[in-house]
Write a structure and sequence with these properties.
Chains A, B: Keywords: Oxidoreductase. Two copies of one chain form a homodimer. With 354 residues, chain A is of the alpha+beta class. Chain A contains eleven helices and twelve strands.
Chain lengths: 354, 354
């Protein structure tokens, strides 16, 4: 695959994706945000949730699945929480707003929480974390997908849940800690990618209709299909199952928008945003020192492989971002196919590779 | 082992453990709380964090590692958060107070958070969840142990973290959802129990000093010892590692009391308590309906084994509680040894078995 990788200039892609979105009907502000945060996903290495999703975003704007202008509606508010209806505005437009609102509440109340129903697809949660960490704030993000069933509860071979991501951002004296994981054994995007690339998954993450674990991504698209296993797998999958229930309740039940309401909403998400102001608990420098100490303990722990020291979540993503900003963003052949389809859809040619 | 199980009356054990704690110096209110919540752990089936910890609690009260009277000190407060120094008061005394305080904040602000340093050992987080769920509140609890290193970061063979539990409680129209899991492949208490029982762990949860995975609990007590692996193991341990960092930052870094401060504090914990008032986001009945719908989807998912329908977290624990309240609490031979040592320590004989 790597032989077919091509590189593209960041600024050119930003302009191109912005133009595609505007061509599909987005307001200038929406186009700027969606293009910026999709590219941020690619920069950080979340290639299944980066510009590969631009075509979807343009299609949704064109067919009305995504609103092209407007603002989220506030359903309810208290000093430290708000409940918004995002009315199918694009996730990369409403999530940063929710984080900013949560930051403002946290500065006053210590924490700020925004629960949001009907955000159109949020793409990579990791893309948004630095909005909070750059202001010295601690943040956690979760989302779920009322229109999707892909992950089985522990002990089941039938999908009930979406593969829900959980992301946290924490400032330190140096780089922030950026974590973005799912509570399942893999993400649906990775299964799609493996099928597109014609390869098996790196391990048996799926439970097929016979109740057997498998690494074959094609089983996921069969009828009846396989389901993604919860984190922890055969032995400890009750933990991933519990964490998935946690994420579905904190997103869908609190926003009162679950699978009975949003089954026809495609990739739209119910979203949890919580910001914590560490200075509500004490001195900022002391907090940063605590984070530094913890990360130092990890970095200096004896590695299993002496050549592979322990990494901090986000470390490699931030390296990748710097590298791609300098040398261009890398896209695989299968992703380039989707980008070229977006160029056809909008009539705006993809910039030339570097 | 089950041949050696004995049963004891709940009320008699409650009185006995209360008397032991008072004999060790605890105030009446502290004795009542510690005995009640340790027994609650046993009732729910968390036998490594139940009355087996009474001897420790009595010893700590006697030698001053745990304070026998007093109240937590408020370090800082905002509308939705508080930071408390528990001053080594017993966990089962201060955690319920922190939850009540968080409930009061949540009723006003939508959420309430209490971060607490220097709580003496909190035992089973599951024991406290119903304080919130019985008031219609959603709750999450986490703790970490500055004096303990038992869990390795992903890619390391050296322990850095404590095996941190994460617990959530959610009301439904029927029984609440009660989840209490660790972010590691097992808990230190389970490794101790396996060693005491002379059995191997049910799977390879430990990484030995050669970097090999093992199910042998004796390796954990060797020099150099093995470390508990993060949830996700060899393939997905970066997820358990990330979740452990999340729990250590939300507990130790926010309370500004980590391993540089509390390395000599034994089993004392840094604690995170967060309560969410679902009525801050909308109608209470609609929230309960959302939870009911989600749990119904889990219960009716096709099981891998037709004889084993999918269970809801807490379901078996609440059954076990009802059963043990009626038929007596069950204790294994190895736990009874510890209870008898506590009887000797305090001079108060253990009640007779049923």
């Amino acid at each position: 695959m790597s032989s077919a990788v091509k590189r593209f200039d960041y600024q050119q892609l930003l302009q191109w994706s912005n133009d595609c979105l505007e061509q599909a009907g987005a307001s200038g502000e929406i186009a700027r945000n969606v293009s910026f945060y999709l590219l941020e996903g690619d920069l950080l290495g979340f290639s299944t949730h980066g510009l590969i999703r631009l075509l979807n975003n343009c299609q949704w704007l064109r067919d009305g699945s995504s609103r092209a202008k407007g603002q989220p509606v506030v359903i309810s508010e208290r000093a430290a929480v708000a409940h918004w209806d995002a009315q199918l505005l694009p996730g990369p437009y409403v999530v940063p707003q929710a984080i900013e609102s949560a930051i403002n509440m946290a500065k006053q109340a210590g924490t700020g929480t925004v629960v949001m129903r009907r955000s159109q697809h949020v793409a990579a949660l990791a893309s948004y974390l630095s909005i909070a960490t750059e202001q010295g704030m601690v943040v956690s993000l979760m989302c779920s997908t009322p229109g999707q069933r892909a992950v089985a509860p522990f002990g089941a071979k039938q999908a009930v849940f979406s593969p829900n991501p959980f992301a946290v951002g924490v400032p330190s004296s140096a780089q922030p800690l950026l974590l973005d994981i799912s509570f399942s054994m893999t993400a649906a995007g990775k299964v799609r990618q493996a099928k597109a690339d014609g390869v098996n998954l790196p391990y048996a993450a799926l439970i097929d209709s016979n109740g057997q674990w498998t690494d074959d991504p094609t089983t996921f698209f069969a009828k009846p299909g396989s389901a993604i296993g919860p984190l922890g797998g055969e032995q400890l999958g009750y933990k991933g199952y519990g964490l998935t229930l946690f994420s579905e309740i904190w997103t869908m039940a609190l926003s009162q928008f679950g699978r009975r309401q949003g089954s026809a909403d495609g990739d739209a998400n119910s979203v949890w945003v919580q910001v914590i102001d560490p200075t509500a608990f004490g001195d900022e420098k002391e907090f940063l020192q605590q984070v530094d100490d913890l990360l130092e303990d990890c970095r200096t722990a004896t590695p299993i492989d002496p050549q592979q020291p322990v990494r901090i979540p986000g470390e490699r993503a931030l390296q990748k971002k710097q590298q791609q900003l300098q040398q261009g963003l890398e896209y695989s052949e299968s992703t380039l196919k989707v980008l070229n389809r977006c160029a056809e859809f909008t009539g705006i040619p993809l910039p030339a590779a570097l």
